[in-house]
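User: tokens in, sequence out, please.
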């Protein structure tokens, strides 16, 4: 893969690889192809010795990433992997590359987009940024890194609030809960990210790689959980309950997850 359709890959500035999800007309939601291209780009930057920092961002001002593309999702998604999105590979790769990954967030970091930002080593947000999970509103969930690792970052109570209520949080609120390292006005976002990259590039790359590996090792058990989670999620995506969430989002209406149960439908539900 030498050219990309759903992402861009730039060296900007020297020593920094910037990977941009380039689907602004879809609020940078990802389909199977997007995730495959991201995996390719992270592998490319991760093992290139001339690169010291990787920046992950989204094209445009509206969104960093809003998770799985609901329009390419009818039950399973449209790509490879257990759920039709090799998202667990991408999540693991962000943790495995021996370079710090900075999430540069403007606009929405929602659903799988919030999971990606959470997994990055550092997050720098513009004041326009909004964070949140929407899975239980749209018939989805990431019960691996999306829940268990989030709890490590923001604490158990807050992580449960984020998933059960599906609220949106401002950049300032996200910084207060430890989800964001620094908030700046949107027009200063690139300067701030460049300054953090420059500072990291002055440090020993091997010392940083070892520090990153040691942080990552501490939460490695979640990778196993994530594998099981994907199997469970694939089964959930084939249920009427999950499909109601996707249909409601696409039809711009409120989902009714309990309708069938009220009518006496015998369904496997928890
Ligand atoms: C992002 C919103 C909060 C924006 O709200 P608002 O400003 O009111 O604008 P809207 O009118 O709602 O949206 C504008 C426009 O964008 C389209 N859109 C937004 N998000 C998506 C999307 N994800 N897919 C497709 N299209 C999207 C929207 O339809 C509108 O289009 P028009 O043509 O203009 O009508 C709000 O839009 C919102 O909440 N969106 C829902 C986002 C969503 O459902 N995301 C998926 C969450 S589930 C998920 O990501 C799981 C998939 C996954 O990746 C995963 C699975 C398993 C394990 C792990 C993961 C993982 O993510 O890590």
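Assistant: Sequence out:
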């Amino acid at each position: 893969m030498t050219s990309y359709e759903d992402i861009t890959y730039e060296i900007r500035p020297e020593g920094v690889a910037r990977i941009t999800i380039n689907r602004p007309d879809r609020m940078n939601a990802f389909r199977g192809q997007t995730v495959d291209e991201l995996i390719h780009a992270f592998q490319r930057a991760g093992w290139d010795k001339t690169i010291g920092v990787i920046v992950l961002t989204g094209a445009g001002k509206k969104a960093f990433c809003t998770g799985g593309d609901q329009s390419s999702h009818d039950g399973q998604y449209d790509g490879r992997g257990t759920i039709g999105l090799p998202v667990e590979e991408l999540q693991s790769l962000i943790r495995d590359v021996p370079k710090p990954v900075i999430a540069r967030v403007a606009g929405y970091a929602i659903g799988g987009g919030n999971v990606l930002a959470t997994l990055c080593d550092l997050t720098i947000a513009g004041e326009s940024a909004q964070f949140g999970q929407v899975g239980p509103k749209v018939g989805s969930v990431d019960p691996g890194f999306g829940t268990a690792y989030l709890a490590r970052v923001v604490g158990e109570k807050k992580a449960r609030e984020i998933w059960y209520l599906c609220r949106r949080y401002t950049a300032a609120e996200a910084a207060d809960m430890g989800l964001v390292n620094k908030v700046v006005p949107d027009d200063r976002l690139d300067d701030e990210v460049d300054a953090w990259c420059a500072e990291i590039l002055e440090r020993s790359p091997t010392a940083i790689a070892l520090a990153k590996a040691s942080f990552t090792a501490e939460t490695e058990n979640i990778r196993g959980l994530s594998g099981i989670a994907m199997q469970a999620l694939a089964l959930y995506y084939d249920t009427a309950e999950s499909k109601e969430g996707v249909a409601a989002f696409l039809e711009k209406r409120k989902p009714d997850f309990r309708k069938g149960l009220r009518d006496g439908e015998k369904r496997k539900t928890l």
